[in-house]
Design a protein that fits this description.
The protein has 343 residues and is mostly helical. It has helices spanning 2-16, 21-27, 34-51, 55-63, 67-97, 112-117, 122-155, 162-182, 186-206, 217-239, 242-249, 261-295, and strands spanning 311-317, 329-333. The chain is globular.
Amino acid sequence: MVVGLVILAVITVGVETHIDPSLIESSGFLEPSLLGWQLIYILPVAVVTNDFFISGFWMRTFASKTDKDLLIGTSIATIAITIILGLVGATGLLAAWTGAYPGNPPQDGSIAFFLLLGQLPAWVVGIVLVMTVSLSTAAFDSLQSGMVSTGSNDLFRNKLNFWWIRLAVVLIIIPVVVVALESPSILQIYLISDLVSASSIPVLVIGLSERCYWWRGFEVVVGGLGGLLTVFIFGTIYFGNAQEGAYLLLLENGLYSDDWSAFGAFVAAPVGGLLWGFGALALRLGTQWVMARVQGRRFDALDRPPSPPASLFTGQHANPGALDDEREPATMQDASDIKGKFF
């Protein structure tokens, strides 16, 4: 469906739209700008860190049979997405160079694609809208599946009835729809979530490395909250008052403000999160060292934790003489219960 949408849009836009050469230079879109250079940093940080919170990506990751399959799949997806986003992003330039944007009265730049779409034949508009709605519902379905999986497995450890999880997801969707309808800008909602992920994911990723076995949940929580606090501190200093600093947490001015506020926020979030995280690490280790000395025991906060339990299928059955439906797989399993530590 995506390939069909791209092919249809490319052909019809190429045939039906007419670029006015005089608008190319006057638009100034080919000239370097402060926002353009800032977005080279902001968008990768925002998108990459935010993807860590999307359950659909993790579901597909864990579904990969081998690391090689995962690498091949992500490589193909990266190439396809780059091509598609490049074509869709070019519609903004085409809308400006054909005179569709900004229009009369002037319209917001976020709808430049639809302004360009309005110049195409009605049957093309109908097909594109139907396919766009279908793609949106498909993405929403994946989001709901990820929420159900996360709620059932991660939050309730599969101890709550599956239908209660689905009901909870439906109830959560209601305020989400209300906020989406009432929000002045959907982009602002995305930017707020991007700012949260930019502050929390860097300190979280450290704990995924086996070499950083000394990293705990305490550092992740303090680092994530500290990153947001750092954004507030930066905004207060940059604008000169605490109220504007608080507004920067909500990115009230969006990305298109002609200053360094949004860029500074996305720098302060990950950098501040890491600084707070390592500060929390030093505080925790110092406190545990003092407690060990006071209690007269060995300081073990930097000891490598034991290996996690393993369950290996031997390829044979424990009772080969039994019927096929009665056989049980012979496994070697370490029954030790090893849990992560917060402190």
